[in-house]
Every structure is written in C-alpha cells, then in structure tokens.
C-alpha cells in the first residue's frame, strides 16, 4: 500500500452513504479531506468526527455540482493548503423514480442527468487541468452495475451511469502519457440513502430493495476506492465491478424466503 498521508482528497457527495464512508477511509490514512455536498450541517458534523477520530483537518465545501458557475468558481478558488487536489472521488449522484420511459418524469430525468453526468463533468473539468500541470493526480469515478446493464424502468438512471463509464474511459484515453490515473468503481446494491432518494422518502419501498439479501455496505465500496488510490504509481485499477455475493447481475439477486 502506497502512503497517501497528507494528500488532498476531494469527495463529492460526502454527506451520506458511499461518499461519507470514503471520507472516513481516507481520513484514517492521514489524508486531508475536502468534503463536498449541499447539506452543510452534515458536512460539519463529519468534519468534527474526522478531527476527533483521526486528528485530521477537513475543509467543508458546500457545493451543488449541478450549478456550473458555482462549481467552477468554488473549485478554482480553494484556499491554501487545499487548492492542489491529488485525488478526486466523483461520487455525488442520485436516482429519481423507477418508471417506464414513456411514462417517466422529465424533471426527474433532468435531475439525474444534471447531477450524475453534467455535475461530474463540471467537477472533472475544473480539477483535472491542475493535476496535469502538476503531473500528479487520480480521478476515481463511482459508476454502477447500472452502467453495465440496463434494467427495466431504470432507463435514464442506467443511461447516466453508462455515460459515467464512457467518460471514465474517454478521460483515461485523453490522459494517456501523463501520470494522472482514472479508475471507475462500479457497485451493485449498496444500502445507503440511495433508494430513499429514488422513492422520495417512501421508506417501506426503499427498504424492500435490500430485503432478504445482504447488500454491500458503503464501507465495502470505500475499501475498494481506497485500494485503487493506494496502488503504486504505475498501477491503475481501471474498472472494478463489485457486487454483493447475493447479486450476480442488475436484476439477478438471491433473496432468502
Ligand atoms: P446517498 O443518497 O446516500 O448519497 C448521495 C450523495 O450525493 C449525498 O452525499 C448527496 O449530498 C450527494 N449529492 C446528490 N446530489 C448532489 C448535488 N447536486 N451536488 C452535490 N452533491 C450531491 O447515495 P449513495 O451513497 O448510494 O450514492 C453515491 C453514489 O453511488 C451515486 O453516484 C450513486 O449513483 C452511486 N451508486 C450507488 C449504489 C447504491 O446501491 N447505493 C450502487 C451503485 C452506485 P447532498 O444531498 O447533501 O448534496
Ligand atoms: C445503483 C445500483 O442497481 O439500484 O446504481 O441501480 S442499482
């Protein structure tokens, strides 16, 4: 494991789920965290917990990745010692609804595309030039099994994750010849607030997604993200698909009766 102590790691979507688990995993190694999301109270609580538990300072960045101007301005004016980002975890994302395409909500589509695709692109566009200039950096995109397989009623969410996969691939090609690495970590079912957000607070429906199977935890995903980040400089884990043992495909899950 290569040390990333004192490296600056920016995690988008650090206020919950996989992003929060990544922030904790990186903080445990002594990395310096920039915690980005919209809910400031949660980020502040996390920053305090990281200080208490690991003794690391974090920078709280209240950021809506859908806001192009805000994203550009905030990321281009980070104060010292936070301005040179070594590792970017592009994690912020969401799903909205589970509907047939011809019955879907256009507003839901726009929210998913704006966040999962355009937001990820805005953050990447703002930060990668500095990585190329400094000849140092690693972008870790959180994709999904949904980017490998489309499932019924998942249409637009799956399309956004297929786009993330294509963006990871394209960015890797464009950075060839530089030391900047691009990894895609693509989980299956992970129990987080993801389904609560998808079903807009319908907790019963959200819980059913993970019922009678053992889903991944956010920490399982964070382990893999950290593993990618701590390989020697000549090793790039290009794409990792990680599934619960109870899942073998987007719709193929084993539920105990
Ligand atoms: P959560 O709902 O628990 O976390 C989502 C995070 O994204 C929150 O921190 C939220 O913060 C942030 N976020 C959402 N919209 C924005 C925005 N506009 N600007 C900034 N931050 C935003 O879900 P997960 O942890 O599960 O999701 C994280 C990623 O993992 C997503 O990209 C998701 O698609 C992906 N994924 C999830 C899987 C799962 O089964 N859970 C499986 C495969 C991939 P806030 O609301 O405070 O802004
Ligand atoms: C989240 C996993 O299968 O719910 O990307 O779409 S799934």
UniProtKB/TrEMBL annotation:
Example of a GO MF term: oxidoreductase activity, acting on the CH-OH group of donors, NAD or NADP as acceptor
Q: Note whether Ion transport occurs among the keywords.
A: no
Going by the UniProt record, its keywords in alphabetical order are: Oxidoreductase
Q: Name one Pfam family in it.
A: adh_short
Q: What is its EC number?
A: 1.1.1.381
The organism's superkingdom is given as: Bacteria
Q: Does the keyword Oxidoreductase apply?
A: yes
Broad class of enzyme this protein falls into: oxidoreductase
Q: Where is the signal peptide?
A: none
Q: Which family does it belong to?
A: Belongs to the short-chain dehydrogenases/reductases (SDR) family.
The molecule here is called NADP-dependent 3-hydroxy acid dehydrogenase YdfG
Species name for this entry? Answer: Acaryochloris thomasi RCC1774
Q: What is the lineage of its organism?
A: Bacteria, Bacillati, Cyanobacteriota, Cyanophyceae, Acaryochloridales
Q: Which gene encodes it?
A: ydfG_1
């Amino acid at each position: 494991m290569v040390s990333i102590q004192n490296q600056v790691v920016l995690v988008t979507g650090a206020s919950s789920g996989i992003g929060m688990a990544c922030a904790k995993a990186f903080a445990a190694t002594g990395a310096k965290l920039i915690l980005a999301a919209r809910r400031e109270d949660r980020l502040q609580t996390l920053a305090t917990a990281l200080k208490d538990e690991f003794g690391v300072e974090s920078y709280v960045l209240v950021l809506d990745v859908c806001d192009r101007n805000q994203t550009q301005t905030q990321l281009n004016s980070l104060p010292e010692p936070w301005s040179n980002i070594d590792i970017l975890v592009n994690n912020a994302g969401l799903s909205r609804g589970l509907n047939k395409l011809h019955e879907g909500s256009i507003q839901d589509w726009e929210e998913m595309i704006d966040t999962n695709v355009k937001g990820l692109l805005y953050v990447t566009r703002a930060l990668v030039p500095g990585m190329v200039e400094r000849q140092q950096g690693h972008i870790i995109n959180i994709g999904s099994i949904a980017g490998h397989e489309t499932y019924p009623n998942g249409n637009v969410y799956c399309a956004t994750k297929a786009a993330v996969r294509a963006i990871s691939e394209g960015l890797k090609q464009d950075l060839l010849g530089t030391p900047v690495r691009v990894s895609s970590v693509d989980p299956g079912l992970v129990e987080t607030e993801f389904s609560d957000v998808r079903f807009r607070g319908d907790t019963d429906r959200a819980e059913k997604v993970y019922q009678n199977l053992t889903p991944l935890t956010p920490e399982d995903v964070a382990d893999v993200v950290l593993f990618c980040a701590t390989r020697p400089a000549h090793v790039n884990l290009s794409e990792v698909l990680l599934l619960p043992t109870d899942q073998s495909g987007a719709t193929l899950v084993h539920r105990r009766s």
